[in-house]
Amino acid sequence: MKGFSHFMSGVAVASFGPWAIEAALRGNPTYFILGGACGILPDTLDFKFYRFFYKHDVYVEPDPKHPDPQAVADQIARAVEMGIREHRYIKLKLSSIRLGADFWQQYLVNFDNEAGEVTVKFGSVVNTGQVPVEGTADRYPEVGRAKIGARVIQTYDAALKVDIFDGPTIGLAPRDDGDFDLEFLPWHREWSHALTMGLFLGILWALGCLCFKAWDAAWQGFVTIAGCYAVHVVEDQLGHMGSNLFYPFTRKRTEGLHWMHSGDGMANFLAVWISCLLIFWNLYRLQPAMTYHFTFVHLMMVGLVIPGAIFWVLRKLLTWGDGKSQTPDAPADDADDDWNEMKASS
Questions:
Q1: 67: pLDDT confidence band, cut at 50, 70 and 90?
Q2: Computed from CA positions of residues 36, 276, 254, 82, in that sequence, does the dihedral angle turn out positive or negative?
Q3: Chosen domain end from 184, 215, 242
Q4: Which of 184, 205, 232 is the last residue of a domain?
Q5: Rounded CA separation 68/63 (Å)
Q6: Is residue 305 assigned to a domain?
Q7: 128 CB contacts (<8 Å, ≥6 apart)?
Q8: pLDDT by residue (tens digit) across 275-293?
Q9: Residue 291 is part of which domain span?
Q10: Are residues 201 and 178 in the same domain?
């Protein structure tokens, strides 16, 4: 999900602690701040810190003065050959090509398993907003091709696109049959997206509080941090990419449930709206001497179920007959959604 959705989910989980409401009524928003911060912390650790320290086996660094798609293809093929020869996981960095303060040379990488080769095609020059510069689409019509000795199995988009800011990392994971699984952003949703990480941070908080003999703040902060961190991991698990749930006891991501994509507008809207309703309910139920009373079911019916049903009916009516003429979009990938969001916020 988007960062703001994770933030609101964290605040909503924090609001379930009676101590958070009581502290807020006294002018102390610490637990709500903890909730929001822990809600977005896993992605912050990945995109703002860990990716800069991640070690790579092969760096593909095209020359911005003399862009050569064949040289890029050859370096990628060398990474695959290294994986075959050494039969190990290869971490490959595809560096971006910066042409100026606001211009970047885009290029596409595609693994063609039928032809047994990797192809590289240079596209348009784009600005930092990823808008193509007119007249640059055919500057480099040549296609770089290099043979690879194994199949590279991709689980998302057919082509890798490299354009603005930092280029992506791909991991080549060897399979028992000699082929490789291609993992996009292998440093993402690794140790940072583990339920055990939330427990660890909660323990650190508790130990810090115990040093000052703040007994209540110790266990209340532990519960808040662990719960709000966990809600981020659980939300990501609803998508495709999944997370490494129990690091360091597990070393690989557990595949997601494939219920949604992290960039889906409706899923993100619902996450934020439901979080707002939960926060409202938790604030309401702990207020003394309320003059108007309603139940949680009443709130959900008025705030979610009835408006949702009306929206669904209107959407069906307004889009009646459109579905047959539309071609479904190619499936996106959670990592690709997260990567694009990170670049847009840079």
A1: confident
A2: negative
A3: 184
A4: 184
A5: 7
A6: yes
A7: 102, 104, 164, 165
A8: 999 999 999 998 878 888 8
A9: 3-50+192-316+331-345
A10: no
CA dihedral 205, 208, 214, 218 (to 10 degrees): 20
One domain for residues 84 and 144: yes
Q: Are residues 243 and 171 in the same domain?
A: no
Structure tokens at 27: 């002018």
Q: Under DSSP, is residue 343 helix (H, G, I), strand (E, B) or coil?
A: helix
Beta-sheet pairing, 143-147 with 117-127: antiparallel
Report residue 145's pLDDT band, with 50, 70 and 90 as the boundaries.
Answer: very high
> Residue 143, class by beta-carbon neighbours within 10 Å (0-12 exposed, 13-18 middle, 19+ buried)?
middle
Flag whether 75 is in a domain. yes
Domain count, the chain: 2
pLDDT of residue 24: 93
pLDDT tens across 16-65, in order? Answer: 999 999 999 899 999 999 999 999 999 999 999 999 999 999 999 999 98
Contacting residues for 50 by C-beta, under 8 A, at least 6 apart? 187, 190, 192
